[in-house]
Every structure is written in structure tokens, then in C-alpha cells.
Design brief:
Helix content of chain B: 25-40%
Mean pLDDT of chain B: 95
Oligomer: heterodimer
Largest interface: A-B, 71 and 80 residues
Radius of gyration of chain B: 17 Å
Structural class of chain B: alpha/beta
Number of domains of chain A: 1
Number of helices of chain B: 4
Number of domains of chain B: 1
Mean pLDDT of chain A: 90
Low-confidence stretches of chain A: 91-96
Low-confidence stretches of chain B: none
Distance between the termini of chain B: 26 Å
Distance between the termini of chain A: 30 Å
Shape of chain A: globular
């Protein structure tokens, strides 16, 4: 339900001339409601930025989400970010 | 470009399954799909933009009135969160997802500290003076469309916000 609420509010904010991007962990709901731009992560509900206490992970996700604002030029698209829950560790990749 | 475009395969079927489930579970539920998807291009680069966060994960200051979790129609009201809030003064009121991780680290659903780091690094131009918490369990979204959304949009415009990042619970 949170995803539906995000989608309805996001589209109204976008209409007001503000560029928006949403995180989603339930892409079918984001797709069904229809939003300007969204970033999908295969993370559990309740932690779309990543695990508690993993500040570098939160930074990596937020940087990737924000980058969509400058690259996506087609409305209504969902972009899957290349991160995996609990396999995402600093030693396994360069922080974005 | 980080990531790849998600194919539509299977999304419609999963959406329809979700609709059937929530329609059965919540008498107040109404289907809402945006009839037009709006699109605003960035007027300036992110490093020169003013950014606001909005979470539907039920985040609010501990001193604020909690969201009404008992109303079967949900609570579409808005909680303001000043940019200089101490994260220890934030909490989460929401019954429809496991809030354990968010209670342990609010940045899991409301990445204000994270955004401050990106601002300090220069990726984000500036942060809005106020950010927003909603409680996303609103089975009938009409009040979000008619009241909450326009109110939030007006407040963001008044604050000179260029970019909003929305995070679900």
C-alpha cells in the first residue's frame, strides 16, 4: 500500500514542476500505479536503502537513485539497480 | 547509467494478484492508477539542485502526533521533518510492514543523514529546509490525490525544491 501511496503523491509533485524519483521494492505496484521514474532494488520491505547500520550501502543506493534523475528521459520507466541484499559488501565492489 | 530498465514481463499479473489480495483484505480499498504520468526534466544539475525527501514509511518526530493506525481508511496526514532534526528524535508509526530495521536505523526508509553526506560530498546542491513523512497505508487513495499530494507539492514549491526522492515503507 505504501508503494501505491508513493506513486499517487509522486505524480502530483512531478506535475508541480519538481523532478521526482521513487525507490521501490514492489515493482508490480509501482508499475500498476504508474510513476515518472523509479529505481527497483530486490530488498525486503522496510529497508529499501539497505541494512541497518550499513551507511555506505545507503549512500550507494541513494547515489544510484539520484543518478536516474539525470539519465532517464522517458516517463513511466522502472530501473533495476544491480545490488543484492546481504551480498552487498564493500569488499565485493567499488562504492558508487 | 546504473542499472537496467525493468521489463514489463509478469508485472501485470503480479499487480492484478496484489489488487485481488488487498481488495479482499481491506473493505476501503480503491484501485487508483495515474491517468497521465507527468514528467519534469531537471532544470539544473543535481549538484546545483535543492532536494527533499518524502517517505511513506510512517516516519515522524517523537514529539509529533503519531499516525492514526486504527482507522481502516488509513491516515493521509503529513508530518514535517526539519532538515536539522536529530535522527534519534525520529520514530516510525506503521502497522503494515516490519518496522524493526527502520527503528534500528531510520535511514533504511528515510535517508536524511545519507543525503547530508551526499550534500557534503557535492553530489547534492542543497537540502530542503523541511522533509516529509507520510503513513502509506491509505486504502482509498482519493484523499492523497485530492488533498495530501497537492498540499505536499505546494509546500515543496514554496521551499524552492527542485528534486524529490520518495521512499516507501
Amino acid at each position: 500500500m505504501c508503494h501505491k501511496s508513493v506513486g499517487l503523491v509522486q505524480n502530483i509533485v512531478e506535475r508541480a514542476g519538481i523532478a521526482t524519483v521513487a525507490l521501490t521494492v514492489r515493482p508490480e505496484i509501482t508499475w500498476g500505479v504508474g510513476v515518472p521514474r523509479a529505481a527497483y532494488v530486490r530488498f525486503p520491505t522496510g529497508a529499501p536503502l539497505g541494512e541497518p547500520g550499513q551507511a555506505w550501502q545507503h549512500r550507494t543506493i541513494l547515489r544510484a537513485v539520484l543518478s536516474l534523475l539525470e539519465t532517464v528521459d522517458e516517463p513511466g520507466t522502472i530501473w533495476e539497480l544491480p545490488f543484492r541484499w546481504r551480498r552487498m559488501r564493500p569488499e565485493e565492489g567499488v562504492e558508487l | 547509467m546504473i542499472g537496467q530498465r525493468l521489463a514489463d514481463d509478469g508485472l501485470r499479473e503480479r499487480w492484478e494478484r496484489w489488487l485481488a489480495l488487498v481488495t479482499e483484505m481491506h473493505a476501503e480499498f480503491q484501485v487508483h492508477q495515474n491517468p497521465t504520468i507527468h514528467f519534469t526534466r531537471m532544470a539544473k544539475p543535481l549538484k546545483a539542485s535543492r532536494v527533499a525527501l518524502l517517505s511513506t514509511g510512517g516516519v515522524h518526530r517523537k514529539t509529533d502526533r503519531p499516525f492514526d493506525l486504527a482507522d481502516p481508511a488509513g491516515d493521509p496526514s503529513i508530518r514535517s521533518i526539519p532538515v536539522d532534526v536529530d535522527p534519534a528524535d525520529l520514530t516510525v508509526s506503521h502497522m503494515h510492514y516490519d518496522t524493526d530495521m527502520a527503528q534500528r536505523d531510520i535511514d533504511c526508509i528515510f535517508p536524511l543523514r545519507t543525503a547530508q553526506v551526499l550534500h557534503n560530498e557535492g553530489m547534492i546542491g542543497e537540502l530542503a529546509s523541511v522533509h516529509y513523512g507520510l503513513m502509506g497505508f491509505v486504502p482509498n487513495g482519493q484523499r492523497l490525490i485530492d488533498e495530501t499530494g497537492p498540499e505536499l507539492a505546494a509546500r515543496l514549491v514554496d521551499d524552492g525544491v527542485d528534486v524529490a526522492v520518495l521512499v516507501p515503507g
